[in-house]
Amino acid sequence: MKEDFLTVGSMGHSSSIALGIALNKPDKKIWCIDGDGAALMHMGAMAVIGINCPENLVHIIVNNGAHETVGGMPTVADKIDITSIAKACGYPHAISVESFESLDLALNEAKNVNELCLIEVKCSIGARENLGRPTTTALENKQNFMKYINGV
User: 3.90.1170.50, 3.40.50.1400, 3.40.50.970, 3.50.50.60: which CATH number matches 14-149?
Assistant: First the structure.
């Protein structure tokens, strides 16, 4: 979809990209979905996001305790308090959820507030067998997204 900017394989740069978009498009709600391994690899980005504190950014970290997309190597994310780290970095709202019901509530709350939010989604390793990969190239994805962002 043209509204999505997929950074598959970028290992942690999605939150920095989302920050740039959020700062430049303050009238749009920006949703960033990060993996726990990626968030750990670029934890400094959380500090930069927190200091800038864009009211339109929702940072979601899917925490399965593994670098799942590159072979399932374990991370330490299931042993640390990601929400406390986010709050220490300046996120005014950070919550951890472990059920579909609590995730739905957290997503609705984030959708309806005007403040930087972090939602940590604790889950197990595993993905649908038919999940698939993006069908566009990275360049096509970038070009389509830039057209969307620029209103073309």
Answer: 3.40.50.970
Domain ranges for the chain, please list them: 14-149
**Residue 79: enclosing H or E segment and its boundaries?**
none
d(CA 119, CA 103): 8
**Count of CA atoms in the C-beta half-sphere (13 A) of 44:** 1
Provide the 8-state DSSP code for 27: T
Per-residue pLDDT tens for 112-147?
A: 999 999 999 999 887 767 766 677 777 887 888 888
pLDDT in tens, 40-92: 988 999 999 999 999 999 999 999 998 877 777 889 998 999 999 999 999 99
Three-state secondary-structure class, residue 74: strand
pTM score, whole prediction: 0.88
Element (H, E) at 58: strand 57-63
Token look-up 């750990």 returns: 40
- CA distance linking residue 23 with residue 88, whole number of Å: 21
What is the token pair recorded at 69?
């997309």
Pick from 72, 96, 76: nearest CA to 86: 96
